Fold this protein.
Amino acid sequence: MLHHIELYVSDLERTREYWTWLLDELGYESFQSWEHGFSLKHGDTYIVFVQVDKEHSEAGYHRKRVGLNHLAFYASSKKQVDSLAAQIKGRGDRLLYEDQYPYAGGPSHYALYAEDPDRIKVEIVAPL
């Protein structure tokens, strides 16, 4: 069982707006909040977002470097995946592999792929 994940971000307010909206759609709730961070919780698992110090922000993040590639979450249905994909596009956020949607992960993997404000890849998967 996963306890929590902690991500350092370049712009806490942009991150808060993106992730609070998305994870609220997936059933997460606000858990903690402080000057330099916040967390969202689902059941016993939570995700923490922390503003990175300026001195450590220069290298930036890229999912193709060593470290985290992406975070994947279950949707409740294919309909929810489709709704979220439309909302992501409507918000002006980046939907990845749009030309292969919703089967970019293969013919039996119904999912959307997007990027958060720091270009962390996010996957939302419909249950089988």
Notes: The chain has two domains: 1-53, 68-128. Helices lie at 12-25, 78-91. The chain has a mean pLDDT of 94.
